[in-house]
From TrEMBL:
Cross-referenced Gene3D superfamilies: 2.40.30.170, 2.40.420.20, 2.40.50.100, Helix hairpin bin
The name this protein goes by in its record: Multidrug resistance protein MdtA
Residue span(s) of domain CusB-like beta-barrel: 213-283
Native source organism of the sequence: Lacunisphaera limnophila
Coiled coil: none
Multidrug resistance protein MdtA-like barrel-sandwich hybrid domain: residues covered: 79-198
UniProt xrefs under InterPro entries: Beta-barrel_RND_2 (IPR058792), MdtA-like_BSH (IPR058625), RND_pump_MFP (IPR006143)
One GO cellular component term: efflux pump complex
Gene Ontology MF, one: efflux transmembrane transporter activity
Length: 381
């Protein structure tokens, strides 16, 4: 009789036993991994994101006047480019670059010796012609001469008078004067220089008052009228705002742009504003409307619409950010108005929007807040 260790197991039973053991080991491995995955999912589900730190401000309702916004440029009240009307050599220059002049001030004198001599000759000839005319009329009254003699004397007197006036006109063109009061530009001539006809001498600008020319879309034509107040701002004077009024409205709309040209008049006693400057213009309309006011930093601009983030408690009682699309209105300094989308009193995110998504938990930290000034001024150094 054989001992137990020598009991032979049939081949098919050994294969089946090996398969059962392998399946048991694999089942144990897969079960362990399944439990690990379930525990990881549960841990992730239980984990909550850290709240995003933001600054907020309550939406405030104010009453703002409606305005029309435009960009334009400044134009002189009067402006000319002085050029020579006649040829001649310069004998005197009576101004310096940038000088202020009055109407009638002599700017340039040309050599006029020949014209002065010609004027004396013409005046002498005119006096003789006048005397001859008097004699001819006396003779004609006595029928001593013919009517043809009188007609000739009258024609000669008229011709010599005309020659005298022509010489005087030429002499006047030899003295170039300021046509109105204003400030001169850069001098382009010097004594001794020979001027040809139409040569540039200097520019003259009168800039008090000064014009601001700008364009508005044709849909605004019904709201415009002369006398409306305007407020003009310019980058060169960030701390100032210039007041003026609408003076004129072009009766014709541009056929290419469908815009309407408008001109405003601004006082400029200190000549701070210069012709050619780029300006921003706000036409202040008489009607007022209620708006919700926020710092301009609260607006999130995007191609599909402008929005803000409103902070409020969600269903779990946690502060969270919710995106709200808004209708943006006029802007004043650091402030911007909303015509719809936000109610007064709602808490609006003013900084930190870059890390927000709809429903993101937030924590409010208002230790440092964006500026919210309707008329900001640059900091003094």
């Amino acid at each position: 009789m054989l001992s137990p260790q020598y009991v032979r197991i049939p081949m098919n039973k050994r294969i089946l036993l090996t398969a059962v053991i392998a399946l048991g080991v694999l089942g144990a491995i897969f079960g362990f991994k399944y439990l690990q995955i379930r525990q990881a999912k549960a841990a992730m589900a239980a984990r909550k994101p850290a709240p995003a730190a933001v600054t907020t401000t309550p939406a405030v309702q104010e009453t703002w006047r409606s305005t029309l916004h435009a960009v334009g440029s400044l134009e002189s009240f009067r402006g000319v480019t002085l050029r020579a009307e006649i040829e001649g050599r310069i004998v005197h220059v009576g101004f310096e670059s940038g000088a202020r002049v009055q109407a009638g001030d002599v700017l340039v004198e040309l050599d006029s010796q020949a014209e002065t001599a010609q004027l004396r000759s013409n005046e002498a000839t005119a006096r003789l012609a006048a005397l001859n005319l008097v004699r001819a009329r006396d003779l004609r009254e006595n029928s001593t001469n013919t009517q043809a003699d009188l007609d000739t004397a009258e024609a000669t007197a008229a011709q010599t008078a005309a020659a005298t006036e022509a010489t005087k006109a030429t002499l006047a063109k030899k003295r170039i004067v300021a046509p109105f009061a204003g400030r001169l530009g850069l001098r382009q001539v010097n004594p001794g220089q020979f001027l040809n006809k139409a040569d540039l001498i200097v520019t003259l600008e009168a800039s008090d008052p000064i014009y601001a020319d700008f364009s508005l879309p044709q849909q605004d034509v019904t709201q415009l009228r002369p006398g409306l107040p305007v407020k003009v701002s310019i980058d060169a004077f960030a701390d100032r705002e210039f007041d003026g009024v609408v003076e004129a409205i072009d009766p014709r709309i541009n056929e290419t742009t469908r815009n309407l040209r408008v001109r405003a008049r601004l006082p400029n006693p200190d000549e701070a504003l210069r012709p050619g400057m780029f300006v921003r213009v706000d036409v202040v309309l008489p009607d007022e409307r209620p708006v919700v006011v926020l710092p301009a930093t609260a607006i999130v601009y995007s191609p599909y619409g402008d929005s803000v983030y409103v902070v409020a408690k969600n269903e779990q009682g946690v502060l969270a950010a919710q995106q709200r699309f808004v209708q943006v209105g006029p802007k004043r300094g650091d402030q911007i108005s909303l015509l719809g989308g936000v109610k007064p009193g709602e808490e609006i995110v003013t900084a930190g929007q870059g890390k927000l998504r709809p429903g993101t938990p937030v924590t409010v930290n208002n230790s440092v807040v964006p500026t919210n000034n309707p008329a900001p001024k640059p900091a003094e150094s």
